[in-house]
Design goal:
By secondary structure, the chain is of the alpha+beta class. The protein folds into four domains: 2-98; 104-209, PAS domain (Beta-Lactamase, 2-Layer Sandwich), CATH 3.30.450.20; 215-299; 309-469, Histidine kinase-like ATPase, C-terminal domain (Heat Shock Protein 90). It is built from 13 helices and twelve strands. It has helices spanning 2-33, 36-41, 43-102, 121-126, 131-135, 140-149, 167-174, 211-266, 274-299, 314-323, 345-361, 416-427, 452-469; strands at 107-110, 116-119, 179-184, 190-198, 202-209, 309-311, 330-334, 341-343, 368-377, 380-387, 431-435, 441-448. The strands form three sheets. A five-stranded antiparallel beta sheet has the order 2-1-5-4-3, sandwiched between helices. A five-stranded mixed beta sheet has the order 7-9-10-12-11. A hairpin with a 5-residue loop joins strand 1 (107-110) and strand 2. Helix 10 (314-323) crosses helix 11. It is elongated, with a radius of gyration of 48 Å. The termini are far apart. 20% of the residues are buried.
Length: 470
């Protein structure tokens, strides 16, 4: 309150003094301008006029003083409110500064010339060598340059050390952009430095310690590479074993066939228990041959593919279905006018043959229906194989694509669907499984679609001969 009174008293005294001086000067001037004879002749009348003028001057003086007091009062209230707002803003700023000081992340506030105006205790603890420079008014560019020259930051470019902040970087900041750089200290800590505009004339810089995240990422990358190497070694081993087993198995199957022919040619009657054993031996030999072939196909599914070709799936599916051994009671419906695809034809046949044969082999009825259809979605064509069989439980839908997985007692190697997925992924597509609307399941295989211009050109070439015949 005393500050307010002092603020009000000083201009009031000055105003009164100035008004009094003006009145005295005006009155004195009026008297001096009047002739001396006139003064004595009209003394009585002048006394009345002077009294009347003095009263008017007093009224005007006090009116001016009152107006000045009111104006100064409003001004003082305004100053008081401004001071209160400044105190609130200062308290909020102090709270923010205290919070920044409690943070472990180094934080620095710079002015428009990139000179530090505040830094927290986290910065002092992490980069004590740079604090004297900031106190001297060094810019951020100079502080970082000094840090690299004095082993505060790593100097190896491969380690992710920050480069000098150039004038273009400052221009980016003035353009309200955010500058981000990865920095590594000589002690091995890695920081994500972000510099951003703060208000109209200031910029903030925060160093976020991402050392643990980078180490975890490096560990994950190393583990992934090790796992990939193990998978490659396992695949190479299985390929070598399968290749080495193929020739003896073929010879074994041939010898079993020769044995049957020699027994029939000699007219020998084998004991009852020997015949079934020979038959079982031949069946096992054939199954081993199929397994070895599937292993080799699986090993080379994503490496030895021929260049892709453009064709319509429905033009090849008739031959695929004929080789799928679906059985005479299984109906296979191929929807016409399928969109053209661009994949390797033989691998396409293998994928479709496996899916159709799988649907027929695992059907729980003597007769059923398998429907093949396709549609285009952007740059992909999706071919769907729907059956009306028993379906696959939701808990097993992800497992069916794993190698050597068999959910039923139907004979098989367990590599069919794994081979399908690996081949489709090599195309750049996907294979998914979902339940059919009524019964059974639907396998959806996406693959690259043929370019639209190529499809139109090929379609016109197919129509032109018919048009010429017409």
């Amino acid at each position: 309150m005393s500050r307010f009174l002092r603020l009000l008293l000083a201009p009031t005294i000055l105003l009164l003094a100035s008004l009094g001086g003006c009145l005295v000067s005006a009155q004195t001037g009026a008297v001096m301008d009047e002739p001396e004879s006139s003064i004595f002749q009209h003394a009585s009348f002048d006394n009345v006029v002077i009294q009347h003028a003095s009263f008017d001057n007093i009224v005007m003086m006090f009116g001016g003083i009152g107006l000045a007091i009111v104006s100064l009062s409003f001004y003082a209230v305004h100053l008081r409110r401004s001071a209160a707002r400044l105190r609130i803003d200062h308290a909020a700023d102090q709270l923010l500064i205290d919070a920044l000081d409690q943070m472990r992340a180094p934080i620095v506030i710079f002015d428009s010339d990139m000179q530090a105006v505040h830094w927290n205790s986290g910065f002092e603890g992490q980069f004590p060598q740079l604090v004297p420079l900031l106190k001297e008014g060094a810019t951020l560019q100079r502080a970082l340059r000094y840090g690299r020259q004095n082993d505060v930051f790593a100097t190896d470019p491969a380690s992710g050390a920050a480069q000098d902040l150039t004038d273009s970087t400052v221009q980016r900041l003035k353009g309200r952009d955010i500058v981000q750089q990865i920095m590594q200290t000589s002690s091995g800590n890695i920081f994500d430095l972000r510099i951003f505009p703060s208000g109209d004339r200031h910029y903030g810089a925060i160093w976020v310690d991402v050392t643990d995240a980078h180490r975890q990422q490096a560990c994950i990358i190393a583990q992934s590479r090790a796992l990939e190497l193990k998978n490659q070694q396992l695949l190479a081993f299985s390929t070598m074993v399968a290749h080495d087993l193929r020739a003896p198995l073929i010879q074994q199957s041939a010898l079993i066939g020769f044995l049957h022919e020699d027994i029939r040619a000699a007219g020998l009657d084998l004991p009852a228990q020997i015949g079934p054993l020979i038959v079982a031996l031949g069946d096992l030999s054939r199954r081993m041959t199929v397994l070895v072939g599937d292993l080799l196909d699986y090993a080379h599914a994503d490496s030895d593919q021929a260049p892709p070709e453009i064709f319509r799936p429905d033009t090849r599916l008739q031959d695929v279905v004929a080789l799928a051994a679906t059985g005479p009671d299984m109906e296979v419906v191929i929807m016409p006018d399928m969109p053209a695809v661009m994949v390797e034809p033989k691998s396409f046949d293998m994928v479709m043959r496996n899916l159709v044969a799988n649907a027929a082999k695992h059907h729980d009825r003597t007769c059923g229906c398998i429907t093949l259809r396709a549609y285009r979605t952007r740059a992909l064509v999706v071919v769907e194989i729907e059956d009306d069989g028993p379906g696959i439980a939701p808990s097993h839908r992800d497992r069916v694509f794993d190698p050597f997985t068999r959910l039923t007692h139907v004979q098989g190697t367990g590599l069919g669907l794994a081979l399908v997925r690996k081949t489709v992924l090599a195309w750049g597509g996907t294979v998914q499984l979902r339940a059919a609307p009524t019964r059974g399941c639907i396998f959806s295989v996406s693959m690259p679609a043929a370019p639209v211009a190529t499809c139109t050109r090929n379609l016109s070439l197919e129509i032109e001969p018919e048009a010429l015949q017409g």
